């Protein structure tokens, strides 16, 4: 296959959509794995109390075990809670546990409540010589304080969009939230990527959704779409991403293709972020 270019500096990508079940976690897990399979150094931070990404990577995340919850509340560092993924030596995971569901209330009164994740990542990168190519932050299906922490820590947002009738409903709310973050908390943040998931070739609807999103956001939407596939859905129950569960299946191929597209767009994305930083 084609070689995946490595980004010239670290990309920090929050994967967000306040709708549940649109393929956020599945996309994080498989794109991160596909990039790691190609030798990229990747960190996945699970910011959803459900811990679905941790489950998919087969990472211990029972209540009380060291997790991103402890990191946000300052008890542990990312170095102390991250775990290396068994199947992918260049992929680390910061797990989440159900305890994280209490965090929003517990951090609400802190002055730096939206910056806790960013501060933890910065400290981790500074104190260790970890050199990630990509950090993916898997967000919970909400627009609450945990998601704000992800949007403040990230340089870019990737939005998975399910190819269904109501796909664009709720996107306005997400865009508004991202706009508010850009206006105050994280001025350099960009929406770099949209990915159409659960695409069904047999329906006109799927194609319509793709076309409509592509019309609205021509530079952001990946040309690769992720098909609806039983293998993608069942892979987590074997504690594997589909890219290793069924490497030659349609789901795998499309996620590897999406990862390649993301990798190839790196310099363009990094430049856009840099020009926001310099205020052009
Ligand atoms: P989110 O993180 O946005 O809530 P998930 O990634 O957990 O969404 O996906 C929701 C459900 O849909 C999961 O059961 C997952 O296995 C399934 N799923 C995700 N992507 C696909 C797909 N392309 N084809 C079939 N099922 C999928
Ligand atoms: Mg999820």
UniProtKB/TrEMBL annotation:
AAA domain segment(s): 10-190
Domain of life of the source: Bacteria
Descriptive protein name: AAA family ATPase
Organism, as annotated: Bifidobacterium saimiriisciurei
Lineage, highest ranks first: Bacteria, Bacillati, Actinomycetota, Actinomycetes, Bifidobacteriales
Residues of the full protein shown: 52 to 331 of 331
């Amino acid at each position: 296959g084609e070689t995946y270019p490595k980004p010239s500096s670290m990309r920090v990508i929050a994967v967000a959509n306040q709708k549940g079940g649109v393929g956020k976690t599945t996309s994080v897990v498989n794109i991160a794995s596909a990039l790691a399979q190609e030798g990229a150094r990747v960190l996945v931070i699970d910011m959803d109390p459900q811990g679905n990404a941790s489950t998919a990577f087969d990472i211990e995340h029972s209540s009380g075990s060291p997790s991103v919850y402890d990191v946000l509340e300052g008890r542990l560092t990312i170095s102390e809670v991250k775990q290396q993924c068994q199947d992918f030596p260049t992929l680390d995971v910061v797990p989440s546990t159900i305890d994280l569901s209490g965090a929003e209330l517990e951090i609400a009164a802190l002055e730096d409540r939206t910056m806790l994740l960013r501060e933890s990542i910065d400290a981790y990168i500074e104190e260790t010589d970890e050199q990630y190519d990509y950090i993916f932050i898997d967000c919970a299906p909400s627009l609450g304080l945990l998601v704000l922490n992800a949007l403040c820590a990230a340089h870019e947002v990737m939005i998975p969009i399910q190819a269904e009738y109501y796909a664009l409903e709720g996107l306005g709310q997400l865009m508004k939230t991202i706009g508010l973050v850009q206006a105050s908390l994280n001025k350099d943040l960009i929406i770099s990527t949209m990915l159409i998931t659960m695409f069904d070739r047999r329906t006109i609807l799927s194609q319509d959704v793709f076309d409509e999103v592509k019309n609205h956001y021509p530079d952001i939407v990946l040309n690769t779409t992720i098909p609806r596939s039983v293998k993608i859905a069942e892979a987590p129950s074997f504690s594997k991403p589909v890219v290793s569960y069924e490497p030659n299946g349609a789901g795998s191929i499309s996620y590897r293709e999406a990862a390649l597209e993301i990798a190839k767009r790196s310099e363009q994305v990094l430049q856009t972020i840099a020009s926001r930083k310099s205020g052009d």
